[in-house]
Amino acid sequence: MFRPRIRRALSPLSSLATCMLVSACGGADKPDPSVVTDTAVTQTAVPDLTVLIQMTGLLLIVPPQQNGGETHVIAPTIRPGMGRHVAWIGFGIAQGSSYESRLCVRYQAAHNAAICYVNLDDWSVRPIGTLGLPGTLDSGNLPNNAVNLTPGSAGHRVNRSAAKGWIRSELAFVSGRAANPCAVGRWSYTPVGGTAQPRHLANVLEWVIQQPGNSKFELVFERRSPPHDSVTVTLPSSSGVVALVIAHVPENEIPDLPGGGGTHGDPYPGPGYQATHFHAFYDVMRLPNPPHDSRRLPVLVGRGSVRRCPVRITGANNKSLTSVTGIRTYGCMVAAAEIE
After folding, report:
1. DSSP string covering 185-218, please?
2. Residue 37 lies in a domain
3. Nearest to 335, CA basis, from 51, 8, 76, 78
4. Structural domain tally of the chain?
5. Strands, DSSP E only, in the chain?
6. I need a labelling partner for 237 at 20 to 30 A (CA). Which of 20, 27, 281, 315 fits?
């Protein structure tokens, strides 16, 4: 699994630049004695900028068929009876920004914390990570905490064009890797033709992108309905890190996101609970309507090793805006499927 390092002494891009400034990159050539140097030029290492995109809720990760392509993150259309969900992307508002009234949802708690949540029903985002490393990987490299529903459903895949009616919104990563899953429950998942598999299904999964240390991380939003204008946002960083959140969660769980006051009570539903919200994933994969044998649902076995999954957003002035209670739901987890 990809294990990101938050800070490095010297990025690959910085190393390349240093190499180009000297006569050779191996040190084999001796200096030319006929050349007189008046001043010594020194290079200062610039640590990479690390972008931590924390994905939580009912999100389907669809990697490319081959390494290096776009990884899509789909918020599926919510079925009747599943309750109202929000599909938001949240980030800190940098000082001097003027887009809040135009772009951000009206959520007073987030406004008070200088956080902007953008409704992905209204805005799309241009591909994320154009300046980043490492390259994306195919589905075989995702952590098993994001259960791959393609083999589990006897080979059903995602055709994004054919499934448009079942896709509420989606984003695309052109660089980065999945890392650091967090799960509050222990589940059993039985694929078609297989035996029950114990799984710690991810309530939160990070997507980690490394950018050159002297770069900025920007998101470009485009309005999905007329007048189809766009807004470019530069996100604040702190100690070389930009943290943001992508969430597709029930409305009553909004307070568990950064900026909110948290929810109360114990959400644990007990062993035997079925993750019925996975039907929304199977709709995107165009499986026959339930009941259908290929629509395998995870079954809760017990609590996980943690009771909550913290998420945070980088704010202005080096602030880290952390959720009060963290993500604690047993209803919405991240999953994966392969593209057609």
Report:
1. EEEEE--TTS--EEE---SEEEEEEEE-TT---E
2. no
3. 76
4. 1
5. 49-57, 60-62, 71-76, 85-92, 115-119, 123-125, 167-173, 177-182, 185-189, 197-199, 204-211, 218-223, 230-234, 241-250, 299-303, 312-314, 320-322, 335-336
6. 20
Q: Does some domain include residue 230?
A: yes
Tokens (6 digits) for 246: 């992508």
Contact 171, 97 (CB under 8 A): no
Domain that holds residue 109: 49-336
- Residues in the chain, overall count: 340
Burial of 39 (0-12, 13-18, 19+ CB in 10 A): exposed
Q: Please check whether residue 236 is in contact with residue 63, taking contact to mean a CB–CB distance below 8 angstroms.
A: no
The identity of residue 266, as a single letter, is D
Residue 38 lies in a domain: no
- Of 138, 320, 128, 104, the C-alpha closest to 231 is 104
Q: What is the DSSP letter of 309?
A: B
- Between β-strands 230-234 and 71-76, what pairing exists: parallel, antiparallel or unpaired? unpaired
In a domain, 10, yes or no: no
**Digitized pLDDT (tens) for each residue of the chain, 340 residues in all:** 444 544 444 444 444 333 333 333 344 444 443 333 333 334 455 679 999 999 999 999 999 999 999 999 999 999 999 999 999 999 999 988 999 999 999 999 999 999 999 999 999 999 999 999 999 988 888 999 999 999 999 999 999 999 999 999 999 999 999 999 999 999 999 999 999 999 999 999 999 999 998 999 999 999 999 999 999 999 999 999 999 999 999 999 999 999 999 998 999 999 999 999 999 999 999 999 999 999 999 999 999 999 999 999 999 998 999 999 999 999 899 999 999 9
Task: Please give the Cα distance from 279 to 73 (Å, whole number).
Answer: 17
Q: Is the dihedral of CA 215, 104, 246, 183 positive or negative?
A: positive
Strand order in the sheet with 115-119: 115-119, 85-92, 241-250, 49-57, 204-211, 177-182
